[in-house]
Amino acid sequence: MPVIGADILVACTSIGLTAILTMLTYLSTSPIGFATKTSFFGATGLGAVFALAKYEVLYGRIHWVWLNMAIYLICLLVSLPAIAYRPNAYLYSMALLSPLIGLLILNSKRCRELRHKMLEIRHKREAIIATLKKQGRWKWW
Question: Which superkingdom does the taxonomy of this entry point to (predicted)?
Answer without folding.
Answer: Bacteria
